[in-house]
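A quick aside before the break. I want you to see a complete sequence-to-structure record at least once, exactly as it would be stored in a machine-readable document. Don't worry about memorizing anything.
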Amino acid sequence: MNIPQIASKKMIQISLLSFLSLLIILGASASSGNDAMAAGPSSTTDYFNCTPTGVAAFIDRVHVRCSPAAPGNIMYFAYCSRSDSALASRFLSIFTTAKVTGKNLDIFYDPNDDSGTACGCSTSDCQVIWGAEVNP
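That is the input. The structure line, written in tokens, reads:
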């Protein structure tokens, strides 16, 4: 082998080691996330097809207002933002996209979850969500 071939082989080895290291780091960071989020929603998960009529961001939550209201007179679906501001931003982006484009949302939630009271989501008309999807 000549010098350029040896150098090329070394670069390939270094590149492969770098790639494998990156995969290991990404795998470790993904597995070290919040166990509650990894477990997903409870078995009582439900969804509602929402026509968004309003989107709002507060210091402790983001929410979308739906019309008509979901069963139980639930017109607001919220994500409490203090625990994960990045996820709150993603929800806000999804809500805003649906509102601006005139598309409906599928909102995924647990109707038995009343944890939203901690962030101003009233049990009489608001439900905490764990997922949202803009309809085609």
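Two observations worth writing down. Confidence is low (pLDDT under 50) at residues 13-39. The longest strand covers residues 61-70. We'll return to this after the break.
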